[in-house]
Design brief:
By secondary structure, this protein is α/β, with parallel strands linked by helices. Bound molecules: phosphoenolpyruvate (PEP) and magnesium ion (MG).
């Protein structure tokens, strides 16, 4: 049963559309359970009915037509209860209703299971038997498990608007996909899909204008893979068994087979570009093998997929493929990296949508840096089908509209205009001092480094850099950057901001930031080898970076160094020793470097409780609320499944902040916040009430935060903080703060429109 289940789910995930997926399920399930009927109903919430969408056993004409009101019948009972119903003789049940136009004869055995996602019933899968039959436990768990896995595929199809079209050809319903806000704002544009080169399944559809050139490109790629495989085969150790070596012959045969070559070429002839034509061929053929009962043959599916990936890589090596970015590009991806974002011309990028991640993922942080709306964690988005789609991002509510109706488009165009008006008001803050109504000056610094965002008006606006993430130069190379390369990079930043302070953070790789040439494969990367844990075990990497920083500062004197992910006090001791060593070595080399101020990030709960010991050792404290929230709440900051639980306004985070700031004050050490909370206008009054000395944020947030800052006095902020600290959950805190801002006429910063 497990194998059958696995095969069905695999096939459904790669089915070209919803109707085929559903058809496949009902036929396979009927076969597996050996029953008379298997049907799937999907729930039409607006009309409170279950619509028959696929059946093996009932009349074909009834598909799409039969609608069972939710309040009636056994299928409705499954929906209402959101639980399976298993009846040996359904006709005895008071809710039993016989529907004549499905061609039902008298069925007795009934087993129905709900298809649920995010607590919502999407539909019901039903198996039936003419005779009395109590479905046994294996059968019940089989249907139950299948139903649980189908929800994703169904929501996918719903997203593309297919479901509604299938139900009633009704286009008057608006589809939006839910995610989490990555950055507020509204964007109207066209989808451009970005994908990692190795991910064949994520390749988007795309029409080609030059079919012949595309066919040639494909043939050449196949030829190159053929050569590559021959090389691999020749280089194989001769001691290897013949069978292993023969595997390559089989692969080369498969590569040049009629199915792979001609089927792909046929698809290109129909206008599809080579990568997507390849994707379709590979998926179809892999599925045939995956469906086989024989384990050896099933394994061949992996070979086919591997061949597909190799051809894709060759296709991508072709310099001739250039992405065309429309005027209003909304970048869509399964995961979006800094590099992928940087590829889009900035003037064309209006928004970002990512299937993975949450509001504190680096893709969201980047979107805030660039100042475009973003939605994260749109888990059910059919990424491959988003190319060229008309899209609307509602970054306030985390909604993505796909092919929106004219009425929705008009509404959002209106909101966009209001946003522009608001931006003009925000712009009025430019050049004004970042001080409260009672004259307390809170310097606003910039978070930067993830993308090359130097220059621009916000550079002049910020009073320095509060967090320079140094990972990018490491991520875009295929080796560690040299001391000189790093030095040049840091020097450029120090120079651009001189005499304003620039806080360079030492390398914080691991977690969600990996280096291709230094792979760290772990089950729990955020709890693993990350940040200074790597630095301490690879002092040569750390020392090179520190040497580069100290030399970059020569002639400037505005450098400060910050250490991330501190968990133990002795880590700080060891790192300080290493910094001292780098400094002394440079002096010995006759370079007149000076020791910069050094600070630690407080972003792990253990550090909160060792504030006194840490503060004693360093010159300043900076609070990384992104990781602090992740570790305090035990919620992976990138995992969309638990994104609802990730909330930096959680009372536990606020109380931790209070404790950190109070300790820093007691130790007379300046304390700043550089996590995303610092740039959230909703939280500005809290920061002010806490008494933090400075705030560091993405460029796009500077003026908004300044606006809030200038609207409150510190005395008032302290009172508001005291009330917020009494709230028992994040939602209460949020509602309270929204009211506070609304009362000051600042609600436009939080939601679209006025
Ligand atoms: C943080 O964790 O709050 C932080 C600022 O660092 P990063 O987001 O780079 O992990
Ligand atoms: Mg961090």
């Amino acid at each position: 049963m497990l194998e059958t289940l696995h095969n069905i789910v695999q096939a459904v995930n790669t089915a070209p559309d919803l109707q085929q997926a559903l058809h496949l399920i009902v036929t396979r399930v009927k076969q597996a359970i050996q029953c008379n009927v298997c049907s799937i109903y999907l729930t039409d919430d607006d009309n409170r009915a279950n619509v028959l969408m696929a059946s093996d056993g009932l009349r074909a004409e009834s598909i799409g037509k039969v609608r069972l009101p939710i309040g009636r019948g056994l299928v409705g009972l499954v929906t209402e209860r959101a639980e399976s119903v298993n009846l040996a003789d359904a006709s005895l049940h008071p809710r039993y209703v016989r529907i004549s136009d499905t061609g039902e004869t008298h069925y007795r055995g009934f087993l129905g299971a709900p298809i649920i996602q995010n607590r919502r019933v999407l539909g019901v899968i039903v198996v039936r038997q003419q005779e009395t039959r109590e479905f046994n436990e294996t059968e019940v768990t089989f249907i139950f498990t299948l139903a649980a896995q189908l929800a994703g595929a169904i929501t996918y199809a719903r997203a593309s608007g297919e479901l509604e079209k299938l139900i009633q050809g009704n286009h008057s319903i608006n589809h939006f996909l839910n995610g989490r806000s990555g950055n507020t704002g509204v964007a109207i544009g066209q989808g451009v899909v970005t994908y990692r080169s190795s991910n064949l399944d994520a390749v988007p559809d795309h029409q080609t204008s030059d079919i012949d050139a595309e066919c040639d490109r494909f043939r050449l790629a196949v030829e190159q893979v053929s050569i590559e495989l021959r090389h691999l085969q020749e280089n194989l150790d001769p001691r290897l068994p013949v069978e292993d070596r023969a595997l390559f012959d089989a692969l080369i045969l498969m590569l040049n087979s009629d199915t792979l070559l001609n089927h792909t070429l046929e698809r290109i002839q129909q206008g599809q570009w080579a990568p997507a034509a390849l994707r379709q061929t590979i998926q179809t053929h892999a599925r045939i093998f995956e469906d086989m009962e024989d384990a050896y043959l099933r394994e061949r599916a992996t070979d086919i997929r591997d061949l597909g990936r190799r051809i894709l890589t060759q296709l991508q090596n072709e310099p001739s493929i250039r992405m065309d970015y429309p005027e209003h590009t909304i970048l869509v991806g399964d995961e979006i990296s800094a590099i992928q974002l940087a590829e889009v011309p900035q003037e064309k990028l209006v928004g970002v949508v990512s299937a993975q991640g949450s509001s504190s993922s680096h893709a969201a942080i980047l979107a805030r840096a660039i100042g475009v709306p973003a939605i994260m964690g749109v888990t059910n988005m059919p990424v491959g089908r988003m190319q060229n789609r008309a899209l609307i991002i509602d970054g306030y509510r985390g909604r993505l509209y796909v092919e929106p109706l004219p009425s929705v488009r008009e509404e959002y165009a209106r909101l966009l205009n209001q946003e522009r008006a608001l931006s003009a008001e925000v712009e009025a803050m430019r050049g004004l001092s970042a001080e409260t109504a009672d004259g307390v000056h809170i310097p606003l610094y910039l978070n930067t480094g993830l993308i090359n965002e130097t220059g621009g008006p916000n550079q002049a606006e910020a009073e320095g850099i509060g967090l320079y993430r140094t990972e990018l130069p490491f991520m875009i190379r295929d080796r560690f950057p040299s001391e000189t390369e790093q030095m040049m990079n840091y020097k450029r930043v120090l120079e651009a901001f001189e005499p304003r302070p620039v806080i360079l953070r030492t390398l914080d790789i691991g977690g969600d930031k990996s280096l291709s040439y230094f792979p760290v494969n772990e089950q729990n990367p955020f709890l693993g080898w990350r940040g200074i844990r790597i630095s301490l075990q690879h002092p040569e990497i750390f020392l090179t970076q520190i040497r580069a920083m100290l030399q970059a500062d020569l002639g400037h004197g505005n450098l400060q160094i910050m250490l991330p992910m501190i968990t133990h006090v002795n880590e700080v001791d060891e790192l300080l020793e290493l910094i001292q060593r780098a400094h002394d070595e440079l002096l010995e080399e006759k370079l007149p470097v000076t020791m910069p101020p050094i600070g630690v990030m407080i972003e792990v709960p253990s550090a909160v409780y060792q504030m006194a010991a840490l503060a004693r050792r360093v010159d300043f404290i900076s609070i990384g609320t992104n990781d602090l929230t992740q570790y305090l709440l035990a919620v992976d900051r990138n995992n969309p499944r638990v994104a609802d639980l990730y909330d930096d306004l959680h009372p536990a985070v606020l109380h931790a902040l209070k404790q950190i700031v109070d300790h820093a004050k007691a130790m007379n050490k300046p304390v700043s916040v550089c996590g995303e909370l610092a740039g959230n206008p909703l939280a500005t009054v809290l920061m002010l009430g806490l008494g933090v000395d400075s705030l560091s944020m993405s460029a796009g947030s500077l003026l908004r935060v300044k606006w809030v800052l200038r609207s409150f006095s510190q005395v008032r902020a302290r009172q508001l903080l005291a009330i917020a600290l009494q709230k028992e959950n994040a939602e209460q805190v949020r509602q309270f703060l929204e009211r506070v801002l609304d009362n000051m006429g600042l609600g436009g910063l939080l939601r679209p429109g006025k």
